[in-house]
Amino acid sequence: MQFIQFGKQTIPYTLTRSHRRKSLSISVDQHGVSVISPSEITVEKIESTLHRKAVWIIKQLSDFSEMQTNIQERLFHSGEKLPYLGRQYRLKVIKTDSNEPSFRFYQGRFLAELPTGISEEEHRDSLYPLYVNWVKQRANEFAHDRLKRFTLKLQQAPKKVIIKEQEQRWGSCTPAGNVLLNWRLFLAPTSIIDYVLAHELVHLKHMNHSKDYWDTLQMLLPDYEQRKEWLRINGGTLNV
After folding, report:
1. Residue among 147, 227, 134, 231 at smallest CA distance from 183
2. The pairing of beta strand 81-84 with beta strand 87-96
3. DSSP string, 71-104
4. Cα–Cα 20 to 30 A to 86, which of 46, 50, 151, 189?
């Protein structure tokens, strides 16, 4: 870990050297400031660049400090609550003589069955993948249903909607016209899912973030800025 001083503020950063890079890269996330530099650039030049971008870096760090995060992993024990579509549903785990674990939603709660030989410490490893698959399967149908209101207004529809694991994005739109969605998005309230769906759908018309893009998004969702802000602040809680 290295540091620069900007006024009264000390800014720590991590530096990675790469002989493959042609230019300096500075990124800020919830973990702090990361710099990737070509091997030949001196520390003095790196820190000079960091000083020039210090106001932006401090703002990004401040924004991330606002964000709520939920880093406590569910253990998938009976009585825990699991999120879906902005609500929390209690999990009941039953031990059975079956050879394979199972997971479903039944009468307003999640119901899991596990072989009797699986210990409580192994619950998460056994049930987390089943929970993720359950969310993905329902998310696909849910997304198509919610998209209808926007495709009617926009007169365009994606070729495919794909629910997948995405570490950095809530959604994306490919040049081929496919919409990719992070499965964790479907742990959020419906209004937030609608925002990401509309956001990506508008990219079918405008593959950029131009004024025309934002005007079109506002036509679909007049309050998109409030929804966007909710996701910025609370996105870290969409975790299991």
Report:
1. 134
2. antiparallel
3. -------TT-EEEETTEEEEEEEEEES-SS-EEE
4. 151
Write the single-letter amino acid at 227: R
Residue 212's pLDDT is 94
Count of other CB atoms within 10 angstroms of residue 159: 10
Query: What does the alpha-carbon distance between residue 2 and residue 66 come to, in Å, rounded to a whole number?
Result: 24
What CA–CA distance (Å, rounded) separates 122 from 109? Answer: 21
- Say if strands 178-182 and 171-173 run parallel, antiparallel, or are unpaired: antiparallel
The domains located in the chain, with CATH, are 2-66 (no CATH), 81-234 (3.30.2010.10)
| Nearby residues of 160 by Cβ (< 8 Å), 6 or more positions away | 177, 178, 179
Q: Report d(CA 171, CA 158) in Å as an integer.
A: 13
pTM for this model (two decimals) = 0.75
